[in-house]
Design goal:
409 residues; alpha+beta; PmbA/TldD fold; 3 domains; 8 helices; 16% helix; 40% strand
C-alpha cells in the first residue's frame, strides 16, 4: 500500500469596501488535510479540516478502499523541494490603513462614483509528501482587489468593475488604474462605425475552450478539439500553458495535486499553434494513453481531477503599442454573459467598450456584441499577447484579436 498526504494552509485577510468606506477587516485561518492510499489498483481518500490526526485519516482512507474505486498507484520520487516567494513581503499590520487610504483616494478623486468591493490578501502553504520519499513545500502571498463602481446618477447596481491580482497590495497603482477607468467612463464617445476592429481582451478569452483540453472529454469525443492533438490548430503566435511557478504567477503551486513537478514548472497545451497536450490526472493519462503533464487538481477529501491552475499565454510583444502598430482598438469591459456553440462560435455582449488609441483610453462608447469563432480568435484573427499596456497594478495578460461587431447601439 502507498500513501500520499496533501495539506493546504491559508490565512486570509479580507478588507470589505462599502459605499466609499472600509466596512470591515476579517481574518480567516484554514487548514485542510487529505490522505490518499493506493492498494491493488484502487484508491481510498479521507480528509479533515483543522488539525488532523494522520493515522486516523489513513485508517478512514484504507476503509474507503472497500469501495473499489480504480486508480493507478503513484510512482513518487524520493525528492525534497521547497519554494517560498516571501510571505512576509508586506506588513500585514498596515493592510487596514492601506485599504482606508486607497478607498479615500479613489473616492475623493472620482466624486461622481460610489465604490464597493474587496481586497483579499492570502498567505498560503501547500505541502505534499508520500511514502516514496517526496517532500514538497510551496509558500507564498497573493492579493486580489476588485471594485464595483456605480455612477451616483445611475439606476444600475454597478456600472463597471476593476480588478487586480498579484503578490502585493499595490495601493498607489490600483488607485491609478481605478482613476483611469473612471475618467474614461465619463468621456462619452459616439458609437463605433467599424463593423470589424481589433479588440483587447484579458486571459478569460481562452477559458471558453479550456474544457476541450480535458483528457476525459477528449477521449470520449465531447471536446471541441477532437482529433486535433498533435496538429496545427491555432496561429503560429499562440502558445498556451499552465504556469506553475509561484514566483511568476501569484497563487500557483509548483507541484500538481498528485505531486508531479514539470520541467521549468510549466505545462504546455499549445505551442506555436500546435496542440501538444491535454489536461490530465495520472488516471486519465494512463487510461487513455496520453502524456501526464502534471495538471491534476487536489480537491479536498476527493480523488484528483483535471485542473486549469495558472492558465496563461506566451507574450508576442512588449506592450499594446507594439502589437497594434498605431491601429485603434476596443477594450472589452463589463462583458454581460456570453456563450459558445459546439462549433466554437462566440457572442459577447459588451456593455462598456472603451476606445484605445495612441496608447490611451480615449473614452467609453455605446455597447455592442462581439462575434467570432474561437478558432479564428486564436488563429487567423489573432494579433498577439502582451503584459503591458493599460493597467499598472498586478499581473496582466492582454490578448488582441480582430472580431466583428454587431447589435451596435
Amino acid at each position: 500500500m502507498k500513501r500520499q498526504i496533501y495539506t493546504h494552509k491559508s490565512t486570509e485577510r479580507t478588507l470589505t469596501y462599502t459605499a466609499n468606506k472600509v466596512a470591515s477587516l476579517k481574518i480567516n485561518d484554514e487548514k485542510r488535510t487529505t490522505v490518499r492510499v493506493y492498494d491493488g489498483g484502487f484508491i481510498g481518500v479521507a480528509g479533515k479540516s483543522g488539525s488532523a490526526d494522520i493515522d486516523q485519516l489513513e485508517k478512514k482512507a484504507v476503509a474507503m478502499l472497500d469501495n473499489k474505486v480504480p486508480y493507478p498507484e503513484p510512482q513518487d520520487k524520493a525528492e525534497k523541494l521547497s519554494i517560498d516567494t516571501g510571505t512576509e513581503n508586506q506588513d500585514k499590520s498596515d493592510l487596514l490603513q492601506e485599504g482606508e487610504k486607497l478607498i479615500k483616494k479613489i473616492s475623493e478623486e472620482n466624486p461622481e462614483f460610489i465604490f464597493s468591493g474587496k481586497t483579499v490578501f492570502a498567505d498560503t502553504t501547500d505541502i505534499f509528501c508520500s511514502d516514496g520519499g517526496t517532500e514538497y513545500d510551496c509558500s507564498q502571498s497573493s492579493q486580489m482587489t476588485y471594485f464595483l463602481m456605480k455612477h451616483k446618477d445611475s439606476a444600475s447596481i454597478f456600472d463597471d468593475a476593476y480588478s487586480a491580482e498579484g503578490r502585493i497590495f499595490e495601493t498607489d497603482k490600483i488607485a491609478e488604474d481605478v482613476n483611469l477607468l473612471a475618467k474614461a467612463y465619463l468621456k462619452k464617445l459616439p458609437a463605433i462605425e467599424e463593423d470589424e476592429i481589433a479588440v483587447i481582451a484579458d486571459i478569460s478569452s481562452v477559458y471558453y475552450i479550456m474544457s476541450s483540453f480535458n483528457a476525459q472529454a477528449y477521449a470520449t469525443g465531447s471536446s471541441l478539439l477532437n482529433g486535433k492533438l498533435g496538429k496545427k490548430v491555432f496561429s503560429d503566435k499562440f502558445t498556451l500553458y499552465c504556469e506553475q511557478d509561484p514566483r511568476k504567477q501569484a497563487g500557483a503551486v509548483f507541484f500538481d495535486g498528485e505531486g508531479v513537478v514539470n520541467d521549468g514548472y510549466k505545462a504546455y497545451l499549445v505551442r506555436d499553434g500546435v496542440m501538444q497536450n491535454l489536461l490530465t490526472t495520472r488516471q486519465t493519462a494512463e487510461k487513455y494513453g496520453y502524456k501526464n503533464i502534471g495538471t491534476a487538481d487536489a480537491p479536498f477529501a476527493a480523488i484528483p481531477q483535471e485542473g486549469t491552475s495558472g492558465i496563461d499565454v506566451a507574450y508576442t510583444a512588449e506592450d499594446l503599442n507594439e502589437l497594434l502598430k498605431g491601429e485603434k482598438a476596443v477594450l472589452l469591459s463589463s462583458v454581460s454573459g456570453g456563450d459558445m456553440t459546439t462549433a466554437g462560435d462566440i457572442a459577447l455582449p459588451v456593455l462598456n467598450p472603451y476606445l484605445y488609441e495612441d496608447g490611451e483610453l480615449k473614452g467609453r462608447m455605446p455597447g455592442f456584441t462581439v462575434t467570432a469563432n474561437i478558432f479564428d480568435v486564436l488563429g487567423k484573427d489573432y494579433i498577439g499577447a502582451c503584459g503591458k499596456g493599460i493597467w499598472a497594478a498586478g499581473k496582466n495578460t492582454y490578448l488582441v484579436f480582430r472580431a466583428k461587431l454587431v447589435n451596435k447601439q
